[in-house]
Amino acid sequence: MLFKQxxxxxxxxxxxxxxxVGSLLYLVARVxxxxxxxxxxxxxxxxxxxxxxEFPLRALQFKRGLLHEFRKGNSSKEQVRLHDLVQQLPKxxxxxxxxxxxxxxxxxxxxxxxxxxxxxxxHFFDNDENYAKGIEWYRKKMxxxxxQQITIEKSPAYFITEEVPERIYKMNSSIKLxxxxxxxxxxxxSDYTQVLEGKERKNKTYYKFEKLAIDPNTCEVNTKYKxxxxxxxxxxxxxxxxxxPIEQFHIVDGDRLITEPLPELQLVEKFLNLPPRISQYNxxxxxxxxxxxxxxxxxxxxxxxxxxxxxHPEVDPSVITKLRKFFHPFNQKFYQITGRTLNWP
Length: 345
What we know:
Elements lengths: L1 H33 L6 E2 L11 E2 L1 H5 L1 H9 L5 H6 L3 E2 L4 E5 L5 H8 L5 E3 L10 H4 L3 H5 L4 E2 L4 E5 L9 H8 L4 E6 L2 H18 L7 H5 L12 H5 L2 H8 L8 E5 H6 L1 H11 L11 E4 L4 E5 L5 E2 L14 H22 L7
Parallel strand pairs: 4-7, 4-8, 5-7, 8-9
Antiparallel strand pairs: 1-2, 3-6, 10-11, 11-12
Helix pairs in contact: 12-15
């Protein structure tokens, strides 16, 4: 009899202990998901002064699950109407640069509860066929969002495509434009590495980087090679400045975004007139991958795709030196135009 009572008591204690642990885990998860939110904070309607409109960020946080369902098509027009959701044209665009860190920047900005990202590169302004479909087609490619949120898309080809600045200007002459850049030679090698990987997957051969970057006839830098041409940032930026003032651009240091992402993201928050909400809590270094990953709350974490951070092939040091010497005057002009000096050799 005594043995049965002891067994019954142990069972009761086990149940009570499980309930206590479960409650504690719930509270920890709740605090973790709300630690970066305030009950009320100002969200600008169209990059206006802070405080023009108030909207609960706690409600915006609800978008993580709700908008994901809408993106998958699990919604009706009535549900969209009831939740006051819309598909807005972007109020900011990451226009480049290819292999500068555009995907990482977009995913990190999506940590902010007032930001909604277009998941795919839409290529509206750089693709004549897509552009001919009209602005309404473009808008319908945007994710659902609350009116107080801002939508951001990224298409790195925009930066180097001649027709794009005028086309974006016609859509919105006051749009905010983000350009993320890396040290030009490193970016060119990264560009080459991505193409090389694609060739190797198809069992195709490809020239070595040195043969593409240096003209064999003149032994000078080959400016006809696209990877080199893309890294001459000032040439492309000058075309954009024919339509937009420099104040509508923000330069993101892509090299620093890899090693110290938070300060760069805080500068972008300020540029977009967003209340500061991204904190060190949202970013944690993954030693296995060698990159920072994203923490939305205590439950939901995300790392960038495994294709990010490819190992670059070894390049002849003399070619690297020649490229850096070639890019140097263009870099100096880029610093002068943008007002931001970067630590490039």
